[in-house]
């Protein structure tokens, strides 16, 4: 019996997809956590130990099979308000873009899928149409990991290493991939470029006095990384000093000492990247301690405070002020 190159399939594959079509069910469903980097921003790229916290917000990826065989992958990305913010159609074999709402995003998605296929040639080896939907549970401008949660979900779908995929596509330290995969606070470190994540019991007694404030500006992490790499490349970086502060912060039981460590951390990073701490530039009159998180100048900051904290930042025009327990897993 002559076999068609594209339409024939193994008995196992045939039975598998027959069942899927019969039940018209979801093939796969993946979910990854968002992230917040509490310590070692920038220096985590050079091996400093960091404290990273997975968030209660994340991203879901759902794959469904169609009963047609046109080899079309239909992709829809939905934000936290239920609004479609990106869509495209691709060929399931070559990942050639047929149509898209945003060419740049579509080409990045194509690059990701091609890399998965390169590592795992068995990825998407069939003719049925595929419908993929991603759903964010956070505002995509918040910088909580729209890209990293996507990378981790796709890597799980393709049965490949998510860290390798992240390094290949976006670079960075990949601490966000570790957060995507963990439901606990972690100490994260690149040890000779190998990612290491250790679960820890970070549950500060003063967590009700910790707030995360969105600065109304999404920071481009890749641009910040490139700028950091180019700046002062020959200078000795305080890796050990920042790692020691991370260790202390992760076990600190006193709010006063915690605030001192945050301030010390801010001053060290300020010298490394030649920028003023945000508390000195925007919040000189704030009564607690403020620390930038991730790339400086955007996304979230951490603020110690009290019941007046929300009022203070909202008066300054920063409406998104989230208590620790409302955002951290």
Compact summary:
The protein is α+β, with helices and mostly antiparallel strands and 329 residues long. It is built from 11 helices and 12 strands.
Contiguous runs where pLDDT drops below 50 for at least 5 residues: 1-24
Tally of helical runs: 11
Per DSSP E runs of 2 or more residues, the count of β-strands stands at 12
Global outline: globular
* Count of spatially separate domains: 2
CATH topology of the largest domain: Ribosomal Protein S5, domain 2
Reading off the top of the CATH hierarchy, the class of the largest domain is best stated as: Alpha Beta
> In what range is the share of β-strand residues?
15-25%
Helix content: 25-40%
What integer value in Å does the Rg equal? 22 Å
Q: What structural class do helix, strand and pairing data support?
A: alpha+beta
Report, as a whole number of angstroms, the end-to-end distance. Answer: 57 Å
Q: Major β-sheet, in short?
A: 8 strands, mixed
Question: What are the key terms here?
Answer:
globular; single chain; 12 strands; 329 residues; 2 domains; Ribosomal Protein S5, domain 2; Alpha-Beta Plaits; disordered N terminus
